[in-house]
Amino acid sequence: MKHITPVLNPESARAEYIHGKNGEYFHDWRLKFSHYSPSYVLTNEDIRWVSDLTKNNGPRVLTVAASGDHPMFYAMRGATDIDTFDISFCAKVAMDIKTAAIKKLSRDQYIQLLNNMHSAKDMSQIPYITELMSDIPQNSAYFIQQMNDYPIFSNGLNPSSYQEIIPTNAEYDQMRNVVQKPFKFIWTDIKSLHTRLLHEYDIINLSNIFEYMSPQQIHQTLASLRNHTRPGGIIIAQTGNWGIHRNNRAYYDASQKFKRWARVGYIAKDKTKANSEMIAILQRTR
Length: 286
Ligand SMILES: C[S@@+](CC[C@H](N)C(=O)[O-])C[C@H]1O[C@@H](n2cnc3c(N)ncnc32)[C@H](O)[C@@H]1O
Known about the structure:
9 strands, seven-stranded mixed beta sheet, binds S-adenosylmethionine
């Protein structure tokens, strides 16, 4: 199969958005996750819990970029070589803004920034952007300028709905100390991620993506990443309190098919609850 690397093109990005009757743009929901779908500004997963579970598994991590919270939390858990990937370029932009912001803004200002990013109809509604622009990698800064009128960070719920996920004062200080530069970003669909990888990782976090894929695609993706996981390394295949239940058949099948090279386990966050948040972990055994 031929895999095409996307090329940053603001015109294609704008074409993904619909001009509403009131003059505002919104992302075409039929595209779901796409090359320019709006990013989340704050994770809705318990990445605090997940990153803590695997903190001693080694320094080299590959994780979905999403809101940028995943790489930040892995950095806080001691990972020093972190690569990120996402199908949407907007995830990279959000991640770059947040990485720059923690260096310059107080925690209160950072929270304000996240709120503004989520609800902004245009960039003028994110006042801190101007201040941060010179600290953001060039391609992200260019994209922000080109997408001035588009809600490129509007996915998910407002950060005020996830108060418990916002980094605490202590975490914010720690993030500032450990995140020194923008994270490396691989712009790709997960299906072709393996064609873009150069390393073996200690941890690969693919959370909250498989909910939207067929069991066959899930199987192919996990198999394609085996050689990019070191022996003993792990792939976190799923998280979220509903996705794993919806797609659990795919994981049970996977555990049979992957027996030859991996141990598959499930960890529930709260064993007393039937619908507890849960992750599936594949550990490469050979
Ligand atoms: C479902 S979202 C959920 C948000 C996430 N829980 C967070 O922490 O922000 C997960 C992320 O996966 C990305 N994504 C979805 N489908 C993908 C795919 N097929 N390949 C690569 N990334 C994908 C989305 O762009 C989004 O950033």
